[in-house]
Specification:
- The chain is α+β, with helices and mostly antiparallel strands and 328 residues long.
- It has one domain.
- The chain is 33% helix and 21% strand.
- The strands form 2 sheets. Strands 3-4-5-9-8-7-6 form a 7-stranded antiparallel β-sheet, sandwiched between helices. A 3-stranded antiparallel β-sheet has the order 1-2-10.
- 36% of the residues are buried.
- Mean pLDDT is 75; it is low at 1-24 and 258-328.
């Protein structure tokens, strides 16, 4: 009898719990950050200067006096907690100008990641027609807009090179910048890319800002490029064809295909909060774009250059429904 009463009581508890769950908010809104809470996060950041070692000695950053560095944990505070990106375990860190913070109106930083996809041959460096590549990228980006709109994304137009691709054969470093028009946004988006070639992969350095910041960022990029190198044993010259894998596609694959891989993660910024003060929100408005949607189109272009067929990546699902600013 006691067991029966226990079962009845247990059944009542289950029914009560079920009722509560059915009437509860299935997806309660996360606590919204305030200007004070964002300032507290920013003040808690542990900045580093001098010589920085990445990924257990894989590479190093010899920071100049006018730059500072955030490791993975602190970079995630900026990218995720302040700027609203999804968490990213692959971020190695971020480089910031020493006079710029994550809450400044014209804030910008360089996100660093590493892709171990193999040794990238650079024998196509002198033969790539970047003007032709740009036209095909522009056409493909434009042609993919209906699909992006269908998936709930803003339209994209690749306006042109903000800085045309340049490869330094002595240092094995490639950089370029794109001017991207996103929907009806009044300011174009700047996507600045640096690739440092190594023995087994490539260091990806990416900055996204507004085109109005191009001049300031472009002046500092030569310094950023010069600060980052692979350590001995991992450099481009250390490649051993007997044991090391060769990446597919060469330099053109970095520009036309995988170039937006890191920026894509920044492109999922739909989590930044709508209510944040205008001055705070403005700092990353230009970053809140689904740049990831252009990657599939660029892979189609790569297929045209290689003569091989290519199935484009599926577009990522639209950002979640958390409160956030409208997509630009």
């Amino acid at each position: 009898m006691r067991m029966k009463n226990t079962m009845v009581a247990g059944g009542f508890a289950v029914c009560l719990l079920t009722s509560l769950l059915l009437h509860a908010d299935p997806d309660p809104a996360p606590a919204k950050p305030t200007a004070d809470s964002l300032a507290a996060i920013a003040s808690s950041l542990k900045w580093q200067t001098g010589m920085i070692t990445l990924k257990d000695g894989l590479a190093k950053i010899n920071l100049k006096e006018n730059f500072r560095f955030l490791d993975h944990e602190n970079a995630e505070k900026v990218l995720h907690d302040i700027w609203g990106n999804p968490p990213d375990p692959d971020t190695l860190g971020m480089i910031f100008p020493s006079d710029v913070g994550p809450l400044d109106k014209n804030s910008w930083g360089v996100v660093i990641e590493y892709e171990e996809n193999g040794y990238v041959k650079d024998n196509d460096a002198a033969t790539i027609d970047y003007d032709k590549l740009l036209k095909q990228m522009q056409q493909q980006t434009h042609d993919d807009n209906p699909e992006r709109q269908k998936e709930g994304y803003s339209t994209f137009e690749l306006v042109g090179w903000a800085a045309p691709p340049h490869y330094d054969k002595d240092t094995h470093k490639l950089y370029w910048a794109k001017d991207i028009k996103v929907g009806d946004d009044t300011e174009d988006t700047l996507n600045y890319n640096i690739r440092v070639l190594g023995r087994r992969g490539v260091l990806d350095l990416n900055a996204i800002a507004g085109m109005s910041d191009f001049t300031a960022i472009d002046k500092k990029m030569p310094e950023v490029i010069s600060m980052v190198d692979f350590q001995t044993g991992n450099t481009y010259a250390d490649f051993d064809p007997k044991v090391d894998k060769i990446a597919e596609g060469g330099l053109i694959a970095l520009v036309a295909g995988g170039a937006l891989a890191a920026a894509a993660k920044l492109g999922l910024l739909a989590g930044a909060w709508k209510f944040i003060l205008a001055a705070v929100l403005a700092l990353k408005k230009v970053i809140i774009v689904a740049v990831v949607a252009v990657i599939a189109g660029f892979k189609k272009i790569l297929a045209k250059f290689s003569g091989k067929s290519s199935t484009p990546d599926h577009l990522l699902p639209p950002p979640d429904n958390r409160p956030g600013p409208p997509m630009p």
